[in-house]
Write a structure and sequence with these properties.
Radius of gyration: 63 Å
Largest sheet: 8 strands, mixed
Oligomer: single chain
Number of helices: 2
Structural class: mainly beta
């Protein structure tokens, strides 16, 4: 072969010629060329045991085909593409391990002379990534599970790697080869914990990465547990049930005509706990919740029916009706609430209404019907409110009491109960017991009227009210406080005569009257009980100030009269003559007193001279003038008194001295 005929391109440098011919590189020594000797090396030769595989990948070089001239048995070097590149010499090692995926070029450099200057077109080696497959495990009843494998990829440079198939090791000795992504089911025989391993495979090299997950098979999964079904309005209800995170639930509605169920909503639980779903359907309706496990088994909750409630007010009563389906066999109890409290319990399934007569005119009452299932789930109606009405005339107030305390007339009465509750009372007042006029408008069943001359003026009262529906009540009977009068009050010689008016406003009548006599500090000195309207007390010679009052006694109530205060006058009892003759009879002029605290006495002769003076109430005059002889005749005296009430009084008189 003529070298010149093979030359395609000639490159000249200072020491060698490099000739490329027929895709082969020939190195010609410049010295040999000048000597006319043209030599060339045979093309280097090598192969790798594998050209592709999964990371980590080890390759081995086979260079037995190489033959170099002029040196027999040459030694080669290699570059593997992941450490050195280009025409830089690398290593004599013929075994190499790739630890990262990618496509690599392997070069061989053969020895021609003292240097390594022969090379061979590179061999390509492709190292595949071993990424972990993505899969999820779902539970099924009867110790079953499913494995859902999702296609994922790994991108190395510009190339995308995707597994062609997968191997599932179920953990019980069974292995399954699957062609690609999808959902695959398996059933175990017990709840023994298992480890499921999924391995990806590249078809032409049969390798790839793997991932493992632990699972404990279950004999049965939780049936959806209902919590409540609350009616929002005639076309909406809120269903609540307990869910598990990530599980899809179907809400199905029953056809009341044929009993079949159709799906009306679906809910994927985002949490483990109570899940709520608004159902926009005409109410009432019957629902259930269905959970389908990964193996296609349906887990169905109990049924629950919503409730529609309506309320209306008629004269003196509220009518409550409810509409639900009474065919459910799982209802444990039906309850009707009023204002949040149980009004009616254990309501029969066939009962659909209730008349509430325990209402108060003008009050608003709110009702709710609740069906409780045997599981504890509740179907709750909306809360419906209504204002009670009435067109009846309210009855008059009862047990109207008028009593006197601290110079005030205090009025009390029983507040009407039941249907009629006053919105406002009107107090009517009279000073003659005949002509009444409004005195006050109040909202409580107590009124105080500050008045005077209680023992003179006959005050009487009436009560009327307007109920909350605007109906005026009947007017109460008159209530007149007991009026007490005392005669012979100041002189008291014949005692004290008490007269008082009867009290007749209580429905049960008066049991009797208590009459009390009190001292100045209101301590009770004496008490008498009588059924009449008058009483006589004897004269009190001890207490200058006394009071009387009368109290009517009824069943658990009383009415007290005005208090009459008596301030008795201080009195002196003086003889008109005495005989100071030392015969032991009427020898001393001594004055006796009643209700006197202290005094000063002076006795004068006919010329106005003081013949005797003393401040001792217990002493007397013996008739002598400064211990001189007794002179018969008339003598005048003057007594300056301080009574028990602290009042100053002057008394004058005359006394005759006889022999």
């Amino acid at each position: 072969m003529q070298l010149i005929e093979r030359v395609y391109r000639l490159v000249l440098d200072l020491t060698t010629w490099k000739v490329f011919a027929e895709n082969r590189l020939y190195t010609i020594s410049l010295a040999l060329l000048l000597n006319g000797i043209v030599g060339y090396a045979q093309q280097p030769c090598f192969t790798t045991n594998v050209s592709k595989g999964c990371v980590p990948l080890t390759i081995t070089i086979d260079a037995s085909c190489a033959n170099y001239e002029p040196y027999p048995n040459p030694v080669a070097k290699y570059t593997y593409g992941d450490t050195l590149s280009g025409f830089n010499y690398s290593t004599k090692e013929t075994t190499h391990t790739y630890t990262k995926p990618g496509i690599y070029e392997v070069y061989q450099y053969g020895q021609y002379n003292a240097s390594y200057d022969s090379t061979k077109t590179p061999v390509l080696v492709e190292v595949y990534p071993t990424y972990k497959p993505s899969f999820a495990i779902s539970m099924c009843s009867g110790f079953g599970i499913t494995v859902q494998i999702r296609d994922t990829s790994s991108i190395i440079g510009s190339k995308v790697y995707t597994y062609d198939s997968y191997v599932i090791e179920w953990g019980d000795g069974n292995t399954q080869l699957v062609s690609g992504a999808g959902t695959y089911a398996h059933t175990y025989t017990s709840n023994t914990p298992r480890t499921v391993k999924v391995s990806g495979r590249y078809t032409d090299i049969n390798c790839g990465g793997s991932e493992s997950k632990n699972v404990i098979p279950e004999s049965s999964l939780a049936v959806p547990e209902l919590v409540s079904l609350t009616t929002n309005n005639a076309n909406s209800a809120l269903l609540q049930f307990r869910g598990e995170m990530g599980v899809t639930y179907r809400i199905e509605k029953r056809s009341e005509s044929n009993g079949t169920y159709t799906q009306v909503a679906a809910q994927v639980s985002s949490t483990t706990g109570i899940v709520g779903q608004v159902l926009n359907d005409p109410q009432p309706a019957t629902y259930r919740v269905v959970r389908t496990d990964a193996c296609g088994n349906n887990l169905i909750s109990e049924e629950i029916s919503s409730v529609i409630i309506t309320v209306s007010a008629t004269n003196n009563q509220n009518l409550v009706t409810w509409d639900t389906y009474s065919t459910l066999k799982t209802i444990a109890n039906n309850t009707l609430l009023r204002d949040g409290q149980v009004l009616l319990d254990n309501i029969a399934q066939v009962t659909t209404s209730y008349t509430d007569q325990a209402v108060i005119c003008g009050d608003t009452n709110c009702y709710q019907f609740i069906s409780t299932l045997t599981s504890g789930a509740k179907a709750l109606s909306t809360i419906q409110c209504v204002r009670a009405t009435s067109n009846s005339v309210p009855s008059a107030v009862q047990n109207f009491t008028a009593t006197i305390a601290d110079n005030k007339v205090v009025l009390t009465w029983d507040a009407p109960a039941g249907l009629y509750v006053p919105g406002e009372y009107t107090v009517y007042k009279s000073e003659d017991g005949i002509n009444f006029s409004p005195a006050a408008r109040i909202t409580t069943n107590r009124y105080e009227d500050v008045v005077r001359r209680l023992d003179v003026v006959k005050f009487c009262y009436r009560i009327g009210y307007m109920d909350k529906c605007g109906n005026p009540s009947a007017i109460s009977p008159n209530a007149c406080p007991i009026q007490l009068k005392v005669t012979n009050a100041n002189s008291g010689e014949d005692g004290y005569t008490l007269n008082w008016t009867s009290y007749s406003e209580w429905s049960e009548g008066v049991q009797g009257y208590e009459v009390e006599k009190l001292d100045g500090s209101n301590a009770v000195l004496e008490q008498q009980v009588t059924s009449g309207n008058s009483l006589v007390f004897p004269m009190d010679t001890v207490n200058q100030l006394i009071r009387f009052r009368v109290r009517a006694i009824g069943e658990g109530r009383m009415s007290e009269s005005n208090s009459v205060e008596i301030r008795q006058n201080a009195r002196i009892f003086a003889p008109t003559a005495f005989t100071p003759n030392s015969d032991g009879v009427n020898d001393i002029f001594k004055i006796h007193s009643l209700f006197v605290q202290s005094w000063t006495i002076r006795i004068y002769n006919r010329w106005g001279e003081v013949v005797y003076a003393s401040e001792d109430k217990n002493s007397g005059w013996d008739g002598k003038n400064k211990r001189s002889a007794i002179v018969m005749g008339t003598y005048s005296y003057q007594i300056e008194i301080i009574d028990q009430l602290g009042r100053s009084i002057t008394k004058q008189g005359a006394v005759l001295i006889l022999n």
